[in-house]
User: Which sequence fits this backbone?
């Protein structure tokens, strides 16, 4: 009888411990969930190339600012980030250049850049122009009526080559632009002989050159010899900026830290992006990032010169200062 009583007491004690443990686990889970819920969610496009967002995310820079990124997928053909912002499906634009922002504003979409991204660099060019090893093209000046692949119509894709040929007094109206929006498609089509020239961005330019069978006939740096002509920008709608200035500030802070970190930790940055992009690190080429705390006005004006020269809009239709703000100084 005494033995049975002891066993019952022990069983009751074990049961109590299990209950307390379960309650404690439930409480801890709730606390973690609550902490996660305190983060402000910013919807962005899923990145398909080398970028600073995945780096900032991996290093916890956004979390430090009370922000969580939600990657909503890749852009469909003919769809822009600015259209999705206007439709309320996206919060931030994280790709593109100042002319893209200007064109969106001219179309009535009130967006504004708040931070720089990558810039052009002689050692880490924004765009590389690749051809097959057997191609007769030896330089950009040899381009006449070839099929050239682009990821989408834009100031850097077809715009760079148009500007270059125009500056040389060469026609570009016979070029056939082939839009291949999925990462890696341009390089694959080149190898298969479906196009003659790519407008390759990192990381796919490096991957293709490493694989062999293709060579480079020029870069964006060869055209402009300026960091500014490669400037990309990140931003939000004016409505978002007005309603959530503290979140915009946090976003700018995180992106600045990521830009500096990438330039000083390129190998580690390659590893992070390779993981997100599901590529081998050895195949990736990288961007060089703007180390300025704010957007450089001269860089914006360079882009306007390019855009107006190739007819994206007429001079005076929109002013450079309309597309960006330097109100958010990184901390």
Assistant:
């Amino acid at each position: 009888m005494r033995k049975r009583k002891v066993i019952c007491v022990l069983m009751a004690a074990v049961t109590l411990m299990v209950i307390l443990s379960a309650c404690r686990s439930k409480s801890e889970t709730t606390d973690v969930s609550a902490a996660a819920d305190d983060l402000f969610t910013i919807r962005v496009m899923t990145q398909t190339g080398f970028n600073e967002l995945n780096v900032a995310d991996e290093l916890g820079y956004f979390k430090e600012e009370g922000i969580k990124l939600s990657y909503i997928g890749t852009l469909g053909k003919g769809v822009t980030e600015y259209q999705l912002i206007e439709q309320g499906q996206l919060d931030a634009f994280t790709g593109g250049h100042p002319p893209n922002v200007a064109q969106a504003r001219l179309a009535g979409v009130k967006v504004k850049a708040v931070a720089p991204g990558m810039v052009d660099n002689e050692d880490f060019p924004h765009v590389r122009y690749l051809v097959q090893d057997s191609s007769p093209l030896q330089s950009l000046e040899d381009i006449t009526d070839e099929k050239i692949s682009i990821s989408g119509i834009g100031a850097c894709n077809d715009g760079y080559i148009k500007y270059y040929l125009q500056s040389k007094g060469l026609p570009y109206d016979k070029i056939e632009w082939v839009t291949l929006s999925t990462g890696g498609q341009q390089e694959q089509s080149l190898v298969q002989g479906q196009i003659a020239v790519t407008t390759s961005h990192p990381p796919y330019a490096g991957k293709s050159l490493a694989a062999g069978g293709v060579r480079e006939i020029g870069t964006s740096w060869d055209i402009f010899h300026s960091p500014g002509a490669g400037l990309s920008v990140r931003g939000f709608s004016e409505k978002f900026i007005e309603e959530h200035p503290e979140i915009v500030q946090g976003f700018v802070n995180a992106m600045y830290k990521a830009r500096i970190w990438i330039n000083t930790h390129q190998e580690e940055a390659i590893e992070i992006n390779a993981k997100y992009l599901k590529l081998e690190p050895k195949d990736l080429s990288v961007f060089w990032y703007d180390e300025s705390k704010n957007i450089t006005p001269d860089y914006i004006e360079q882009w306007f010169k390019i855009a107006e020269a190739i007819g994206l809009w007429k001079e005076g239709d929109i002013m450079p200062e309309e597309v960006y703000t330097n109100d958010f100084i990184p901390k």
User: Anything to note?
Assistant: The longest strand covers residues 111-116. The chain has two domains: 40-119+228-322, 128-224. The domain at 128-224 is CATH 3.40.190.10 (D-Maltodextrin-Binding Protein; domain 2). Residues 91 and 145 are 40 Å apart (CA to CA).
